[in-house]
Give the backbone structure.
Amino acid sequence: MPEGPEIRLAADRIAHALVGRKARRVSFAFHRLKEFEAKLRGQRVLEIRTRGKAILTCFENDWVIYSHNQLYGRWYVCPAGNPPQTRRQLRLEIENQKYSAMLYSASDIEVMPRRDLHMHPFLARIGPDLLSDKPGVDLIVKRLTADEFRNRQLAGLLLDQKFLAGLGNYLRAEVLTHAGLHPLRRPADCSEGQLLKLAKTIIRLTHRSYRTRGIINPPALVKRLQAEGKTNREDYRFNSYNRAGQPCYFCGHEIVFSSAGGRKMYFCPSCQVAP
């Protein structure tokens, strides 16, 4: 499933095609949404926002299309009248005179007034979005130490969108490795310095992934690995995620694979000492 940085990048592509332009056609695949096609036709798109893994397409008449990519959803942006060659099922299309933005394969789509967004079941329960809301270090530390979160293992907490929106499996693995914290450690087990480092790492790696389209390792390390002949992007993109049995780039110890809650978990037992 795409994580926050990938969703924000998709939103950027959609925004480039739609924002500031009037929709000459809006089409939904689901009968329950057909009534909104006329309401949105001819309306200018004002903004494309993200909340975690959801995209909000905001129109000038204060109606908003909520969409969640789920596991298989994918947005395509193409010249108007020139759809992509795909066997996926088209669920939503927004077309103006120049471009079409099309969502395939996802079924979690709603239309609602902007004033009601806070009542949407998903939007109402998720925490601050790391790329749209841009929470600071102090706010993240405050959430880490809140009664609701402080006694939960980091392996589960960092995947909980109620804690922070936009983190997923690869970011969880990399954040914990770069912060030097074992996945089974709890915020309550951490010192003030460790919590500060964790909060800073969450922010830094999420924004780095967005800027680099998914490359998490520090630029100097990436450059060194490339100079050593690692030309496959997957060989220098991550330190721990999906690298079980390979050496940690920070200490040389073998990366370990485990699982928690049915999700793959990777960590370095040397850099991330068990509590």
